[in-house]
Amino acid sequence: AQDDALPLLALLGVIAGAFTSITILLFRLAIEGPLDAYLPGGHHENFEGVGAWLRFSLPLTGAMLVAALFHKLSTQSRIVGISHVLERIKHHQGHMPASNFIAQFVGGVICALSGQSTGREGPAVHLGAATGSIMGRKFKLSSSHIQLLLGAGVAAAISASFNTPIAGVIFAMEVIIRGYNMVSLIPIILASVTGALITRIFYGAEQAFVVPQLQMHSLMEFPFLIAEGLFMGALAALFIWVCVNTAKKSPKNLWLRFLIIGLLNGFIALLIPQIMGIGYDTVNLALIGQLPWIALFIFALAKLLITSLNLGLGQPGGAIGPMLFIGACAGGVIGEIGNYLAPDEASASGYYAMLGMAALMSACLQAPLTGLMTLLELTSNPNIILPGMLVVVIANLTASEVFKQKALFPRLLQLRGLSIDTSPVEQMLRRNSVLTVADKNVKAL
Prior knowledge:
By secondary structure, the protein is mainly α. The protein is about 70% helix and about 0% strand. It is built from 19 helices and no strands.
């Protein structure tokens, strides 16, 4: 709790990053290993290759298995995901229960294995936060330092998932901790770097997506960029609105909710198998411009609908991966339109797909810096930042000011009567322990 504790906190950040990255690797292997074994072609993304009966029955079976798991848990232990992390850091000093950790790990694996529309980054954030929190409690640290290690775990989780260490740091500070200070920044940076390094030992230095070298052809493209920002903001607002309103009207009965999840995923997968699983194979096709505009449009709307319904009904899956999927496909549509209207001026559709990924994710999270840093690290192209800033800012303003839809996860918390708003005084008190401000020059009489 002393001011000179930064070296020890930095070391603890490295340890938290190592433990978190190992947890995320186990989570990823638990998904990819079985899928590589039973999907056609031996690839964990190839749900399109399975028959119609499996495309319907797999999501339904997985949903019922998750219902059986959650039935054994208390109501509080069923709460998972990024909303749970925000709740625990605001109202419980960052103390995250182990039972929710188990529910998230097992539930997230079942959802991914059964082909439900889901992502692995949302569960990874929960798992990373819980890893840092549990480690802080084992070391008997103060609540402020437990919250710091929670943030370190989140940064390492994002870094390990996407191989993007800077984006991991910004996500932890902008979305979870919701503030910046030097004492917390250094351990979180070290945790994020550690997460990326351990991931690269197992998977190499490649990013999560196949991103070609993308360049803006002309300044005449700015009307298309503005249109893309408006489109992404509208889609983000629709995503949040459907999710929140589904959560409001969600049945109280656990089995009924998961039956609906299974049936919805199964029926849509019969028609559009690309929505199954994490879907990064489809994202990669959008980035290299291998999909026609009509397919991109259908995939984006179908993924938006099924994922927002899943989240609203309480599926223990993630939203960040589907946000990237929707943004890539919807951005590709704008690129295809631009190439049709101005073939000599517009860039490749993959360029707009990459911008769409950052814009839609940042608009849903109301985290523009996270979107921009993800864009920069995935492309390794600093020239994409200028158009990226324009598209991201317009998308964020469109979602929040035009359609009045605030960030997704705080909105979901509000439905439970909780808030993550923190006054400046409370922020100051949370960052300082009693020992750092107490007058220790005491005489005993």
